[in-house]
Amino acid sequence: QDEKKQLTLKVEELERKLESTSAQNIEFLQVIAKREESIHQCQLRLEEKSRECSSLARQLEMAIEDAKRQVEQARERAVSRERAAQSKVLDLETQLSRHKTELNQLHRSKEDAERRFESRLQDLRDRLEQSESTNRSMQNYVQFLKSSYDNVF
């Protein structure tokens, strides 16, 4: 009976331990369930963040491509403007050269015209002086004739 009593006490003690262990197992299962739920929520958030990151990466790539395209277009416009400006500079330099040549020709023409005018003016002065001289000679001759006729009559 003592043995039976000891065995019964042992059985009761083991049953208590079993209940305690079962209670602990239930608690552990609840903790594990909460952790699994937390892990599941974290995985969902991670997937959502991954999708956001992918979306942001695509947006960033598109923005970079757009920026590259805009830079290229701006560079092409700048090159085009530079070429147009260089072409205009060349045109203006050509016009300037042509105008300088024309101006030099006009200066030479003016100087030639002034020389011809001065020469002709001098020629006309000489002829005027010769004409006046001839006129004086004729007037003197007329005076001489008048005085001669007066003396004769």
Automatic annotation (TrEMBL):
Location relative to the cell: Cell projection, Cilium, Flagellum; Cytoplasm, Cytoskeleton, Microtubule organizing center, Centrosome, Centriole; Cytoplasm, Cytoskeleton, Spindle pole
Regions annotated as coiled coil: 4-141
GO cellular component, one term: centriole
Family: Belongs to the ODF2 family.
Organism: Prunella himalayana
Keyword match Cytoplasm: yes
The name this protein goes by in its record: Outer dense fiber protein 2
A single GO BP: spermatogenesis
Keyword Iron: no
Keyword entries, A-Z: Cell projection, Cilium, Coiled coil, Cytoplasm, Cytoskeleton, Developmental protein, Differentiation, Flagellum, Microtubule, Spermatogenesis
Top-level taxon of origin: Eukaryota
